[in-house]
From TrEMBL:
InterPro entries: Mpv17_PMP22 (IPR007248). One of its GO terms (cellular component) is cytoplasm. This is Uncharacterized protein. Belongs to the peroxisomal membrane protein PXMP2/4 family. Its main location: membrane. The keyword Transmembrane applies. It comes from the Eukaryota. It is found in: Membrane. It is a multi-pass membrane protein. It holds the Pfam family Mpv17_PMP22. Keywords: Membrane, Transmembrane, Transmembrane helix. The chain crosses the membrane at residues 54-74, 95-112, 157-174.
Length: 179
């Protein structure tokens, strides 16, 4: 059975698990790449791979990212219809969703790092705008393509694939505290 057929079959039989597994795989791959790029000599001597970081990123992807995208795209299709639907979805996505989803992801990661809610909020305050600026270089065009050309069932897969590159950047920057 081809990978595409397997994906389609599981998408129909269990869309939530399908999207969770897809997000986990893509985040895991992105974090492995980011860690291999960002690892310095000191980290290599200390054992290299940061498993705690890896599991934080994968947890966020498999729970928050996968579930939110699944329901978010269905929500958009219900409230924005008609000839201007793509533009309305795009505006909502960039003005409302991007800051909200990025804030939630940063907060969730902060909590998983055993930070207090207050420190997780501080992490959001410190990192939200730089994260959004970087994301706005990639996601606006991807969102238009997604809303205009990709069938609803495949929108999370498309955005997860685009997000693979974002995840490398996000994981690298977040861990390096460059934001």
């Amino acid at each position: 059975m081809s990978l595409l057929r397997l994906y389609q079959r599981t998408l129909e039989s269990d869309p939530i698990k399908n999207k969770m597994l897809t997000a986990i795989i893509l985040m895991a791959a992105g974090d492995v790449v980011a860690q291999s790029i960002s690892q310095d000599d000191e980290e290599e001597e200390e054992g290299g791979f940061d498993w705690e970081r890896f599991f934080r990123m994968v947890t966020v992807a498999g729970t928050w990212s996968a579930l939110s995208m699944h329901y978010y795209f269905m929500f958009l299709d219900r409230i924005f219809v008609g000839p201007s639907a793509t533009m309305k979805k795009w505006i909502f996505d960039q003005i409302i969703w991007a800051p909200s989803a990025t804030s939630a992801a940063l907060f969730y990661i902060g909590l998983l790092e055993s930070r207090s809610p207050q420190l997780a909020v501080k992490k959001v305050e410190d990192n939200l705008w730089p994260s959004l600026k970087a994301g706005y270089m990639l996601f606006p065009l991807a969102a238009v393509i997604n809303f205009r050309m990709v069938p609803l069932a495949y929108r999370p897969l498309f955005m997860s694939t685009v997000s693979f590159f974002w995840n490398i950047y996000f994981s690298f920057v977040y861990q390096q505290k460059l934001l």
